[in-house]
Amino acid sequence: MNRIGKARRLAPSDVKAMQQQRQALEKPGFHRTRP
Predict the structure, then answer these.
(1) What segment(s) does the record annotate as region Disordered (predicted)?
(2) Nearest of 1, 22, 30 to residue 14 by alpha carbon
């Protein structure tokens, strides 16, 4: 619920930027670079 509330306060461009960052972090192999 808190996430949705915060997302609504942000501008649509900010929400898109956050989603892009999240997708970049979730790219396959990103976590696996660490031993």
Answers:
(1) 1-35
(2) 22
* First-last CA distance in the chain: 35
Distance from C-alpha of 32 to C-alpha of 23, rounded to nearest angstrom = 15
| Contact indicator for 18, 10 with CB cutoff of 8 Å | yes
Q: Is the pTM of this model over 0.85?
A: no
Q: How many angstroms separate the CA atoms of 4 and 22, rounded?
A: 16
By residue count, the chain amounts to 35
> Can you read off the two tokens belonging to residue 14?
């900010």
Which structure tokens are listed for 28? 């396959």
